[in-house]
Amino acid sequence: MTDQDLQDLLSKYPLLLKGVRSIDCQSGWYQLIDVLCGILTDYVANVPEELQPDLYLVQLKEKFGGLRAYANETTEYMRGAIAVAENLSFRTCEVCGQAGETRPNIHVQTLCSKHYKRSIK
Questions:
Q1: Using an 8 Å Cβ cutoff, are 60 and 20 in contact?
Q2: What are 36-47's pLDDT values in tens digits?
Q3: Spatial separation of the C-alpha atoms in residues 51 and 98, rounded to whole Å
Q4: Which residues partner with 24 through β-bridges?
Q5: Assign residue 107 a region: left if phi > 0, alpha if psi is -120 to 50, beta otherwise?
Q6: Nearest to residue 71, comparing CAs of 56, 85, 60?
Q7: What pLDDT is recorded for position 60?
Q8: Within a 10 A sphere around the Cβ of 74, how many other Cβ atoms?
């Protein structure tokens, strides 16, 4: 993720991303992360106020070809939203955001055909 992408997300979702220092994936998943953060932010805004301070993300990264999102504390709803985003990442090119699939590379990545071909040259 570029520094600009990170700063954009941190400015849009300061409370949800207060535990995140970096996002360790490429920018193709920006939209996926942005939508996830929007859903979680709307949800957290509607839980009892005493629970809100503990419901935030601490890490977003690529692992084994998919997005991983880790939270300080979660609810069943949050775990479900995170699971959907993580599952969608296995169908989304990490480089460009187009349709992709998990492919062997130097390490496993989810890439579209175009970016996979470039990576094996």
A1: yes
A2: 999 999 999 999
A3: 36
A4: 61
A5: beta
A6: 56
A7: 98
A8: 18
Helix (H, G, I), strand (E, B) or coil at 68: strand
Q: How far is CA 33 from CA 16, 36, 41, 117, in A?
A: 12, 5, 12, 25
- How far apart are alpha carbons 56 and 4 in whole angstroms? 21
The token pair that represents 78 in the structure block: 């949050």
pLDDT tens-digit map of 45-82: 999 999 999 999 999 999 999 999 999 999 999 999 99
Confidence of residue 117 (pLDDT cuts 50, 70, 90): confident
Work out the average pLDDT over 102-115: 90
